[in-house]
Amino acid sequence: MYKRLSIVMFPFLLLALIGSSVWGYLEHQEKNTILIKAENQYQRAFHDLSFHMDKLHTELGNTLAVNETSEPSYRKGLVNVWRLTSQAQSDITQLPLMLLPFNKTEDFLANMANFSYRMSVRDMTKQPLTEAEMKTLNTLYTHSADITKEIRGVQDKVIANNLRWMDVESALISENEMHDNSIIDGFSIVDKKVGAYEELNWGTGSLNVFSKNDVKMLSGNDMTADQIKKKALEFLGVKDSNGVKVVENGGKAPEFQSFSVVVPSADSTKNDTQLDYTKKGGHLIYFMKTRDVPSAKFNLRQARDIANEFLDAHEYKDLSAISYDQYQNMATIHFAKKEKNVTIYPVQVTVKVALDTLEVTGLQATDYIYSQKKREIGQPKITVADARKQLNSKMKVTSESLAVIKNDLDEEVLCHEFIGTLNNNIYRIYVNADVGTEEKIETIRQDQLEAAAKSKT
Fold first, then answer.
1. Cα(318)–Cα(309) distance, rounded to whole angstroms?
2. Mean pLDDT, rounded, for 410-419
3. Can you tell me the distance from the alpha carbon of 217 to that of 254, in angstroms, rounded to the nearest whole number?
4. Where do the Sporulation protein YpeB N-terminal domain residues begin and end (predicted)?
5. What CA–CA distance (Å, rounded) separates 218 from 277?
6. CA-based diameter of the chain, in Å?
7. Residue 223 has what DSSP assignment?
8. Where are the domains of the chain?
9. pLDDT greater than 70 at residue 17
10. In the CATH hierarchy, which top-level class contains the domain 384-456?
């Protein structure tokens, strides 16, 4: 009986064995294909980075070599520097360097891109490059040579020793192997060199990423972790402090000093609530309470009213709703400061409201907190009628007002703000109220405009 059973079962077992072997082989082949594809993408991004850094160094040299009075040549050179720096930044993001300290180099490239872009878009006939800006360009030329040389050295090792970027990824995860990888060592040397550079004068028209948030704008004294915990519990109306975690961020850099607070939910099935406060003054800049919103029982107008009450009850004053979004039964409402009937767009707050219960579940107020300052808003030199002449003659204007925005040089400018339609699209156009030139054009989605109209009814 067993012999007959084994004869019957043998073919099935054999087929199962062959099938599992084929399946395992195909899985192995598929895995290898994915690994090869990832390795090829890493290699392409790395060699592109080396190429773009080399071109960047060359372009900086070409820009410095042109005649001092040749405004078009300087503009063209600076545009190319900005383009190549942006490409180098993109290359870096495609490499597996997240676990590797490379932030100093990334910040340096971000500042270089920002500096070159802002210099290229300004009118050099009225604002030629200053001696300090020329000095910065010369320093960038020197530093880019150092960075290019180091990256070329890494590239030579990669080619000569047939090094793999997949090994870099593995080595970064396994800390014990980090000192044995030539690529990791090379990039670490680059970042240390960049970190040792003296701070450059990026100019008044350039936004240095190291001083993005001006702590001088903040009111109040430095807070302790216990004080921040108390503020967070009071904000949420929670009495039980068990499990509440407070982490201090930013180290010794004042512009990054803050506290992050995590408050566990009383219901274990729900997510924790997260809050961020500035160290100086203890101002709430971020709040998020993530939860499911199964249905929308209220509309955007009601959500806007609740958000307004929420802002008034805290430290966010004199704000007016400027745009609305609704996604997955959640309303996202953007507010900007109103002063003398002028919308101050740099001073913004975003509030999230759940449309099932009208509970405020989120707040983003970094721009509001760090943009507080006394502004002298003068009268526009260009009339509304003259500003409208700058618009497309076929555009149908539906509204007009005054607004303060930040232009491409990160300068606040007073503008005539127009909302109009053209070719079935809706646009928001800002015309400089002092010189009459177009500063910025934005496209508005139809659903956003409809949501704004409903919220006002």
1. 12
2. 90
3. 12
4. 30-167
5. 12
6. 105
7. P
8. 19-210, 217-369, 384-456
9. no
10. alpha beta
What pLDDT shows up at residue 302? Answer: 93
- For residues 399 and 367, the answer to whether their CB atoms sit within 8 Å is no
* CA–CA distance, 207 with 214 (Å, rounded to integer): 11
C-alpha dist (Å) from residue 397 to 170, 386, 400, 416 = 58, 14, 8, 12
**CA gap 88, 76 in Å, rounded:** 18
Please give the Cα distance from 77 to 71 (Å, whole number).
10
Amino acid letter, 177: E
Residues 6+ apart with CB under 8 A from 396: 420, 421, 422
| String of DSSP letters for 160-194 | HHT--HHHHHHHHHSGGGGGG-HHHHHHHHHHHHH
* Neighbouring-strand partners of residue 430: 417, 440
Length of the chain: 457
Structure tokens at 109: 């490239």
Using a cut of 0.85, tell me whether the model's pTM lies above it: no
What confidence category does residue 38 fall into, taking pLDDT thresholds of 50, 70 and 90?
confident
pLDDT tens per residue, range 366-407: 889 888 888 888 899 999 999 999 898 888 999 999 999 988
Give the residue-averaged pLDDT of 181-204: 78
Going 39 to 187 to 257 to 404, the CA torsion angle's sign is negative
